[in-house]
Amino acid sequence: MKNENILKAKGYKITRPRVAVLDLLTKQTKPLSVKEIFVKLKREHDLASIYRILKLLEEVEITFAEAIGGEKYYHLGKDQHHHIVCQKCGHVECLPCNHLFNKIKNFTNIKHQLTLTGVCNKCNNN
Amino acid sequence: MKNENILKAKGYKITRPRVAVLDLLTKQTKPLSVKEIFVKLKREHDLASIYRILKLLEEVEITFAEAIGGEKYYHLGKDQHHHIVCQKCGHVECLPCNHLFNKIKNFTNIKHQLTLTGVCNKCNNN
DNA sequence: ATTCTACTTGCAAATGATTTGCAATTGTGT
DNA sequence: ACACAATTGCAAATCATTTGCAAGTAGAAT
User: What percent of chain A has pLDDT over 90?
Assistant: First the structure.
């Protein structure tokens, strides 16, 4: 199902800023920070609205977010893939599994972090 | 080498707050947020100092940090292991590889994020 | 043990990311 | 085109983190 239809199906309106964010994310090959999205959309939309839109898109599972160095980065889609981030300049690249070892050659001093999230027992019970 | 000696060897002083943070981290079995460290130390030390201490400890590789949902969590040591985080309450558990599948049984709706960090080509060249 | 000095801390204020309240605006069904 | 609820834009609040600076303290020298 097309992303806009997912929104519509759940009763959300198709608004200019939402379309703008979706269209922008569709073109990306790497995750964007909220600020980057704001700027790439030429500051035509309110930053707070972009935050709200991204949170909504995350809730309906059109996008997903990752915390990289104190900032959230957003992505379309659910296909699992990963990232490699420069410790100095913050440059981010996507890391589909089959490219992993090629990309890694371009970095030194490699470290990794794996974080799983789920819903814990306690939260499942109330 | 003992952690305090690592500091001393690099010319840093062994101060009350630094010892307090190190001692606290030594007792933990899970990563702590800065706020948690501040509270567990009974607010006896300045929050800004704790930030500075943790940043220092990270630089000299006594601790390492991970961004979990917009907040940094700190750990002693370099041994690689991972975390599972409740999406609702933020509860964090450590995930040594050999325990991975046991822990996962206590969570539902599991997703994962792998982030590698390194130093990229550009940063290596200047 | 006392003094000296540079490194550290504590406090307050700044910064950066994100959230929230609210009035004005705008999709969407009728 | 109308009406209403959902959504946006703006401003102000909040939360994590950083920074400037004066006062305090660890550790070397005396």
Answer: 48
